[in-house]
Amino acid sequence: MRIVSLHVDGLEQAVKNGLYSWLKDIDADIVAIQNLKAKEYQLSDAVVYPDDFNAYFFDAEADDYSGVAILTKEIPKAIMTGLNDPLWDRQGRFIQADFPNVSVASVLFPAIDQFNSVDDKLAFQKVFAEHLQKTRRKRREFVFCGNFEAAHKTVDIYDWVEAQENPGFLPEERAWFDQVLGPIGYVDAFREANFGENQYSHWPTLEDARRDHAGWRIDYQICTPTIRQYVVEAKILKNFDFGLHAAVMIEYELDDMDD
């Protein structure tokens, strides 16, 4: 199962730039997309009904803001939207597809913007950590994909010394990762197969992206610990036609879980 996570700067524009054709070319099975910047009814039929995928959307109430989607080749058993938290669900930040062996979700953490402050972002981290704790009590496996709007370790950011006082690399945000990837029990799936440096998924400007430095790894796939042994490949695909984020592609041999 090849899972791709990608934060776009508007889904309609990304599709016009060839996103769906590109996903077909790389043979993605499940695609977690963040930052649709449109409601489903505002999207064209070509976006809502892709030729090669079943598409599911969760909108934000505000116009031109947030929203998440999940595209799947296989029809899922169920789709779940929201975190049962009215504040964050109005911002369209979570959608999950359930399959026989695993549930895969697309999540978009809040950025610091006209709707959310640093304190709001930390509050969302708390809500999501509580959700992760609940999922660990369920008898199934999970992969959560998305833009977490923060980097975890110094290797995940270009200039970590200066960044320690900036949102996205604050001590509180990094401590949240320590909890999620520690006591709560989730795994950074990317680092199970890719230990390289300069593995960045976001650059503040296109100019930085072209220079291929000054980046941050803030786009993650985290999984339940049983899955870690089935991660066989992890790559960051640096195609900037779809926005300022690169796609994170991870290959899981999940069929082996039944053996």
List the helices and strands and how they pair.
Elements lengths: L1 E6 L3 H6 L2 H7 L4 E5 L10 H4 L5 E5 L9 E5 L5 E4 L4 H4 L4 E5 L3 E7 L9 H18 L5 E7 L12 H4 L7 H10 L6 E2 H5 L12 H6 L7 E5 L7 E7 L9 E6 L7
Parallel strand pairs: 1-2, 7-8
Antiparallel strand pairs: 1-12, 2-4, 3-4, 5-6, 6-7, 8-10, 9-10, 11-12
Helix pairs in contact: 5-7
Account of the protein in words:
The protein has about 260 residues and is α+β, with helices and mostly antiparallel strands. It has one domain: Deoxyribonuclease I, Chain A. Helix content is about 25%, strand content about 25%. It is built from nine helices and twelve strands. Strands 3-4-2-1-12-11 form a six-stranded mixed sheet. A six-stranded mixed sheet has the order 5-6-7-8-10-9. Helix 5 packs parallel to helix 7. About 45% of the residues are buried. The mean pLDDT is about 95.
Rounded mean pLDDT is: 93
Strand content: 15-25%
Helical segment tally?
9
E-strand count = 12
CATH class: Alpha Beta
Write a compact overview of the structure shown.
Helix content is 25%, strand content 25%.
Keywords for this structure?
Deoxyribonuclease I, Chain A, 6-stranded mixed sheet, 9 helices, 12 strands
